[in-house]
Amino acid sequence: MKLRPLADRVLLKEEKAETTTKSGILLPESAQEKTQTAKVEAVGPGTEKEKITVKVGDRVMYDKYSGVQVKMDGEDYLIVKNSDIIAVVE
């Protein structure tokens, strides 16, 4: 199944949180800080007012409480508005 975002929406695949510290200490899930970085999997066509500013394959940072979480083919994704993306990680 393929998912194609509409209008100014972007489909993101969230990156996994670190499970160990740099010194090697294992972190339980309750102590892991959720990252706000993800890889762009698909983009909508944009709108007249809002042009899409990222492309498939970009690594981005997004607002902490934005988007809609979806599960597709056993994978977790996030659909956000283009304006909720705050930076491209290079």
Structure commentary:
The model has no long low-confidence stretch (mean pLDDT 87). 18% of the residues are buried. This protein has no helices and 6 strands. A hairpin with a 2-residue loop joins β4 (68-72) and β5. 0% of the residues lie in helices and 38% in strands. The protein has a single domain, classed as Roll (10 Kd Chaperonin, Protein Cpn10, Chain O). It is an all-beta fold and 90 residues long. Heptamer of 7 subunits arranged in a ring. Interacts with the chaperonin GroEL. Keywords: Chaperone, Cytoplasm. Pfam families: Cpn10. GO terms for molecular function: ATP binding; metal ion binding; protein folding chaperone; protein-folding chaperone binding; unfolded protein binding.
Number of strands: 6
- Main sheet characteristics: 6 strands, antiparallel
**CATH H-tier superfamily:** GroES chaperonin
In CATH, the topology is named: 10 Kd Chaperonin, Protein Cpn10, Chain O
Give the N-terminus to C-terminus distance in angstroms. Answer: 30 Å
Mean pLDDT: 87
Based on secondary structure, the structural category is: mainly beta
CATH C-level category: Mainly Beta
**Low-confidence runs:** none
Protein name: Co-chaperonin GroES
Main location: cytoplasm
InterPro entries: Chaperonin_GroES, Chaperonin_GroES_sf, Chaprnonin_Cpn10_CS, GroES-like_sf
GO molecular function: ATP binding; metal ion binding; protein folding chaperone; protein-folding chaperone binding; unfolded protein binding
